[in-house]
Structure formats: C-alpha cells, structure tokens
User: Fold this.
Amino acid sequence: MITLENNYLKISIAAKGAELQVLYSKETKIEYLWSADPKYWAKHSPVLFPIVGSLKDEHFKYDGAEYKLPRHGFARDHVFAAEKISNTEVVFTLSQSDETLTVYPFYFELKLIYKLIDRKLNLTYEVTNTGTNEMLFSIGAHPAFAVPNTPNTSYEDYYLAFNTDEKLTYCKLEDGLVANETESIELNGHKLNLKHELFYNDALVFKTMQSSCISLLNNKNDYGLHFHFEGFPFFGIWAAPDAPFVCLEPWCGVADGVNHNQELQQKEGIISLAPHKNWTRFWEVECF
Assistant:
C-alpha cells in the first residue's frame, strides 16, 4: 500500500489493481470512499481495462481467433509496479505478460498516475501501444463513494447534481449486456435523488450525458464532493442492491450490445491506438 498526503487529503492505493482504497479529508474528517465491505461489494475503485463491462458470451473475436475475458477485463486483478514520485504523486505501471497475451493479444503499457492538488485527487490514465500493430482497447473508472458519509444522514438524504443535464436517458442492461431499450429520468433542477431502487436492475448506462461534473451532496449538511471528468463518451452509475455507496463511472468503452457480433474491431466505443502512440484521460474528485 502506498500513501500520499498533503495539507488537505490523505489517500492510499494498493499495488494490486493500482486501486484507490482510502480518500480521507483532513479538513472534514470524512472518509469519502466506500469501505469495500464484502457483504455488498469487495472493491473500492477498480480500473476497467482492456474492456469495460461484459463481453457477449465472455469472449471477443480478433484476427480470426477467439479470446475470453471476464467482465471489466484483467487489470484490476494484476499487481502494478509502483514508483512514488513525491509525497503527493505516484505512478503505477502494468505491461503485457505471457498471461495477458493469452487473453488479449496486444503489447501495451498502462500507467495510473495519482496526484494530490490541494483538495483534489487527480487520476490520469495513460495507455501506450508498445507493439507493432494497431492496439484496440477500452478503459474506465469505477470509484465507489460512501453514502451516507456523515453521521445522522441516510441514503435517501443524498443526491447527484449534474452541471449540465436536465434530463438523463439511460440504457438498460440484460445479463450485463446493453439492451436496445432506453428509459429517461427528468431531473429536478439538475438533481437526481438517490434511492436504492434505482440500481435494482444493475447499472444505469449513459451514452448521451452532457455533464462534465457530477456532485454528490445531501440535504442535511454542506459536505460533499465534486467529480470532474471530460472526454469520456460513456458513463455508468451503479450500486449493489441496498448497498451504502454509489459508483460514478466515466468510461471510454461500454459493454457489448445484446446483438453484437463479438468482433473487437466493431465493438462500440473501442479505441484504436497506433504503434508507439500514447493516449490519456483523467478524472478528478474534489472533497469538501
């Protein structure tokens, strides 16, 4: 476990999955991250790579061969190499191995760069194609935030505030795959009130969200967080059934559609990266 801290925040990250496990504010004395209680879901903030969501029949086709990958890929289950740059920055790196090449036939370097900037945590994903052929991948975030996170508040006291959207249209999931059917939610002043029933049928998957910031707030006090993200064409919001958390998930990629032909090159949201080229995205969470 590697710990970073400044005057405002203290975070801890595990080498396995380069997964954020602590997000603590020294000012508010609040732990904002979900505790990973296995009763509900034993993860804090996994990275989703080289796919996001589920593959149809858990496999994809590429260059005439078939490869099997579990939901959200393999990066979250592998140990990353870590280099602590300073008390406020660390770089975690994962590259291909004989094991990964049997399920994903690409040479790559994946870096997760954690950096504290005042009251913000910045997480940058950097992907490099280290091979000689085009690389195909998806990547996504899956941080889970505690709800409630302060005493004398309940799940229903909390809401998500969107900086742009007034209406949300989401795709339903069928056995982890994106269905053709969509539903809409009218927001009341850009607000989505949290309730456990929202997630009884799995995640809400958004393909047309316009917001670049979602705030987690409540009706009982002024504590909360701002979750900033840009350049992610898909977004998921999820919680395990009746669990005391909510996941805010910016994605570059999405689960297979129910009618997908399983060809990786034709997968919705797949990113194509030329040899020896880099690709980056980042998100930030600001605690108050």
User: Anything to note?
Assistant: The two ends are 25 Å apart (CA to CA). The longest helix spans residues 98-101. Residues 33 and 145 are 4 Å apart (CA to CA).
